[in-house]
Amino acid sequence: MSAARLDPRTRVGSVHLRVREPDVAAAFYRERLGLVDRSGDAATVRLGTADAELLVLHGDPAAVPAPGTTGLYHFAILVPSRADLARSLARLAETRTPLQGASDHGVSEALYLVDPERNGIEIYRDREVSEWPRTSAGLAMKTDPLDLDALVLERGDPALPVMPAGTRIGHVHLHVSELPRAERFYCDVLGFDLMQRLGHSAAFVSAGGYHHHVGLNTWAGDGAPPPPSGAAGLAHFELRVSDEAAVAVARARLGAAKVATETIGAGIAFWDPFGHRVELLTEPR
C-alpha cells in the first residue's frame, strides 16, 4: 500500500441527505440558517451560499429514520468569522429555533441544533491555529460551555438575510460501530491523519493538519448496525481533493485494501465499513 497520505488540501464538499419532506426541510434551512437555493429539480433541492453548494436534499417519502444505527451524528457548517457565528445565533433566536447545545472546543466555538427530520447540525467558527490548545500528546480539543451572552455582543451589523460567502462544510461527524476499525479505515487505508482521541468512544481525523474533517464515534452503541437501504438521513458526503493525481493516490490505497471503488467522472465513490457512502471528487473547475 502506498505510504502517501491523503491530499493535504482535502476539504469536505457537499453533504447529501435523504429526507421525507424536502419542502419542509428546505424551508427550515432557508429561514433558520440563511441558506439559499443553488439549483435542483422536483425531487432534489440544492442549498448553499452565493459561492458554494453545501447541502443537497434528496426527497424520498418512503425513507424512515433508523435510530441505533451508524450514520450521521452531525454535519458542521463553518462560517468565516466570530461575528458571522454571532449573526447565526441571532437568526436562530429571532426565528425561535431551539439549540441543543453551545460549546467552546478550544479550536472552535460551536452551536448545535437539529433539522425537522432530526439530522444533527453544527454551526461553528474556527480560532486561529496558533490559539489551538495542545499538550505534549498533540491537539487537545475540549468541550466547555460557550458564553452566548459574550458571543452575541460580537454580532455587529444586523443579521444578514443569508449565510455569508466563504461559508463551507467544515467537517462531518459519523456514528461507527467500532472505533479501532474506523481509525484503520480512515487513517491506514484512506490516508487521513489521526488528530485526537476522546477516550475509547470518539476520534477525529483530518488532512493537512486541520483539527478534523471527519469525526468518528460509537455513541449509537458499540456494534451498531448500518441503517437499512433507503433510510432517512445521510445519503453520502463529498471529500474534495485538489486534482486527479490525488484521486489516483486514494484509489490505489483503497484498491490495496480491497475496497471497491466506483468511477464518477474524475473522482471515485466507495463505502466505508459502516455503511457510509463517500464520494472523493476533484475541485469544481
TrEMBL record:
Check the record and name the Pfam families matching this protein: Glyoxalase
The record's keywords, sorted A to Z, are: Metal-binding
Q: Does the keyword Metal-binding apply?
A: yes
Which residue ranges does the record assign to the VOC domain? 11-126, 168-285
For whether the record's keyword set contains Transcription regulation, the answer is no
Kindly list any coiled-coil regions of this protein: none
Q: Name one GO molecular function term.
A: lactoylglutathione lyase activity
Which SUPFAM superfamilies would you find in this protein's record? Glyoxalase/Bleomycin resistance protein/Dihydroxybiphenyl dioxygenase
Question: Sorted alphabetically, which InterPro entries does this protein's record hold?
Answer: Glyas_Bleomycin-R_OHBP_Dase (IPR029068), Glyas_Fos-R_dOase_dom (IPR004360), Glyoxalase_1_CS (IPR018146), VOC_core (IPR037523)
PANTHER family membership: CATECHOL-2,3-DIOXYGENASE
What name does this protein carry?
Answer: VOC family protein
Please tell me the species this chain comes from: Eiseniibacteriota bacterium
Q: Which lineage ranks, top first, belong to the organism behind this chain?
A: Bacteria, Candidatus Eiseniibacteriota
